[in-house]
């Protein structure tokens, strides 16, 4: 049987939820687990940061990379912000 590319993310979700029988809604998870799952799924299993940044800085990097990759509105707003900040 072929193994799905994102089995690691799915396994992390299953392992880290507080109550697997939570009902109709997804079970709660910590913010760090959510960021890790989104990073694995959207940036790829092989993405990692080898610098000496804190967890919070790494999370900010993940958010920025995901938005850059998947949000046209984010890129548009960011470019506008950069143009305006250069004028000052």
Helix content: 55-70%
Q: From the helix content, strand content and strand pairing, which structural class follows?
A: mainly alpha
Beta fraction of the residues? Answer: under 5%
Q: Given the structure, what is the number of helices?
A: 4
Largest sheet, if any? none
Distance between the termini: 59 Å
Characterization of this structure:
The protein is mainly α and 88 residues long. It has one domain. Helix content is 62%, strand content 0%. The chain is built from four helices and no strands. The chain has helices at 7-16, 31-43, 55-70, 72-87. Helix 2 (31-43) packs across helix 3.
Q: What's the SSE blueprint?
A:
Layout: H1 7-16, H2 31-43, H3 55-70, H4 72-87
Helix pairs in contact: 1-2, 2-3
Question: What's a quick, concise take on this entry?
Answer:
The chain has 88 residues and is mostly helical. The chain is 62% helix and 0% strand.
């Amino acid at each position: 049987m072929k193994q799905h590319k994102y089995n690691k993310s799915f396994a992390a979700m299953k392992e880290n939820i507080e109550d697997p029988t939570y009902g109709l809604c997804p079970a709660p998870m910590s913010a760090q687990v959510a960021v890790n799952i989104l990073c694995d799924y959207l940036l790829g299993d092989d993405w990692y940061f080898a610098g000496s940044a804190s967890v919070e800085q790494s999370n900010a990097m993940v958010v920025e990379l995901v938005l850059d990759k998947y949000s046209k509105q984010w890129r548009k707003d960011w470019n506008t912000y950069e143009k305006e900040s250069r004028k000052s």
